[in-house]
Design goal:
With 313 residues, the chain is an all-alpha fold. It has a single domain, classed as Arp2/3 complex 21 kDa subunit ARPC3 (Orthogonal Bundle). It is 66% helix and 2% strand. A hairpin with a 3-residue loop joins β1 and β2. α2 crosses α4.
Amino acid sequence: MLYAPTNLHIPDGFLTIIVSLIFWLITIVMVGLAVSKTNKSLGEKQVPLMGVMAAFIFAAQMLNFPIAGGTSGHFLGGALAAIVLGPWAGILVMTAVVGVQGLLFQDGGLLVMGANIFNMGILTAVIGFGLYRLVVHQKRGVRLVVAGGGAWIATMAAALAASLQLWLSGTTRLEIVLPAMLGVHALIGVGEGLITVAALAYIEQTRPDLLNAEKTTREGGRGWIVGSVLVTLAAVLISPLASGSPDGLERVAENLGFLGSGQDAPYQILPDYTIPFLGETAVSTILAGVVGAVILMGLLILVGRNLRRRTEV
């Protein structure tokens, strides 16, 4: 069975070894820098938030929404993570999400994982945060509009990066893949922007201090975490209802004739977000989603606590 990529999750076989290694090197440097920066600045209230954010983004990415032409897309989340947590912690969250998706769910290749983390995690976090920072002291409406627009631009930047990687690998021609990728992701980016705005509006309503580093209030923290966990659980529960249409990258690869270059993972644990012995059923998808969300929440809380302890030393 040929590997079918999900939104911007490039499979092995699409990129050459050299291009893959170059982006692994860039990603390792950036993630190392993120660990160093987060180690110096991580606040106590950010530790559980990193876990909740990772679980939410993972669950939201399971919900493919339909767009025009029988194509679907899903949330990326890099801009949201960076706006709420800061760019460095946001990069760590996105690295964990993309890593778990590739290692546990075989969503995205192993050799090209560095490129996937760069496109969906690093690039989106840096752009989303950079644009939001320009208006961080403006009125709420301005901040939300810029956050949504920044999420759209970040999605387009990720699509641009993937297009360049495919071209550098000789997989397809740039003048063909670039307009195709940007065209479909311009629509997917609208969904990205709307989800980002909705999530930020919810956070501003329940925990506005999380978006203002100068405030340290912890009132309502427990209720906020419970509410966020419930939202994440709801996303997992309705994931079987997600659109089954090909996503942006898959549609482009199919139309341009390089879909067959994708390679299956060398092993399968929870392939296609299912429990193998339960088959491709709604229960299987829900349970796989719960497993992924719990693993990511626990992993990021452990990482956050470890970094927090180093900060206090």
